[in-house]
Amino acid sequence: MVKIEFLGPIGKESIELDVKNLKDVAKELNKDENISIWLEKSAVALNDMIVNSLDIELKDGDKISILPPVCGG
Amino acid sequence: MEIRFQFYLLFAVDDMVEIYKGPLDVKDIISRWLDECDGRNWGAFIPFIGIVRQEDGIEALSFDIYEPILLKWFQEWQDKAQKKGAIVKMAHSLGDVPIFTSSYIAAVMSPKRRVALELIDEFVEDFKANAPIWKYDVIDGKRIYAQTRSTAMDGAGLMSKKD
């Protein structure tokens, strides 16, 4: 299982998914309209590192974070 | 009317990143950072102090922070600064920050003026675009995500690509 956390204003509780790679995560998350509207403008982190490809295999216990648009300061 | 705040430091990392619950105690933070410059032969200390403005009927701004990625983002900047002989520092608020108080301080210390001026500009701009911090307006006690002022981070949209 991998854990998906939705940061900041997305306002959704973390979920766990039984998936093999990041592509599967994207597929699953796009099924939920309340999440998919955030995905087009959100960055993705795997174990707290921002990733730039979905061709990444996952292992049990991995943490994926969805980071919506930011505004510090 | 005198407004007083209690200042709460939540955590600090290597004396470089400081996160506070609520507004920043600007004079205390700047004074401590200046003390650190003593005897270190820095030629320039350039702070940027962000203050919450009264506009659009807000009573405060409010912030969420994702600390693990903030610290990594910051460390990359520290490494970049170090290559130029400089150091960067920052303090930021978590939670509500009333108007007229400060939510963000960044600073660069460097042997040379030019390096510090350029670094503070790049650092503050990249902070706005890529530090994992989310801003909300507080109006009538309600938190409203500052969506139109927010910027999608580098690499955003990765999961919206359907194949």
Automatic annotation (TrEMBL), chain A:
<dbReference type="InterPro" id="IPR016155">
    <property type="entry name" value="Mopterin_synth/thiamin_S_b"/>
</dbReference>
<dbReference type="InterPro" id="IPR003749">
    <property type="entry name" value="ThiS/MoaD-like"/>
</dbReference>
<dbReference type="InterPro" id="IPR012675">
    <property type="entry name" value="Beta-grasp_dom_sf"/>
</dbReference>
<protein>
    <submittedName>
        <fullName>Putative molybdopterin converting factor,subunit 1</fullName>
    </submittedName>
</protein>
<dbReference type="Pfam" id="PF02597">
    <property type="entry name" value="ThiS"/>
</dbReference>
UniProtKB/TrEMBL annotation, chain B:
<protein>
    <recommendedName>
        <fullName>Molybdopterin synthase catalytic subunit</fullName>
        <ecNumber>2.8.1.12</ecNumber>
    </recommendedName>
</protein>
<keyword id="KW-0501">Molybdenum cofactor biosynthesis</keyword>
<dbReference type="InterPro" id="IPR036563">
    <property type="entry name" value="MoaE_sf"/>
</dbReference>
<keyword id="KW-0808">Transferase</keyword>
<dbReference type="InterPro" id="IPR003448">
    <property type="entry name" value="Mopterin_biosynth_MoaE"/>
</dbReference>
<dbReference type="GO" id="GO:0006777">
    <property type="term" value="P:Mo-molybdopterin cofactor biosynthetic process"/>
</dbReference>
<dbReference type="Pfam" id="PF02391">
    <property type="entry name" value="MoaE"/>
</dbReference>
<dbReference type="GO" id="GO:0030366">
    <property type="term" value="F:molybdopterin synthase activity"/>
</dbReference>
<comment type="subunit">
    <text>Heterotetramer of 2 MoaD subunits and 2 MoaE subunits. Also stable as homodimer. The enzyme changes between these two forms during catalysis.</text>
</comment>
<comment type="pathway">
    <text>Cofactor biosynthesis; molybdopterin biosynthesis.</text>
</comment>
<comment type="similarity">
    <text>Belongs to the MoaE family.</text>
</comment>
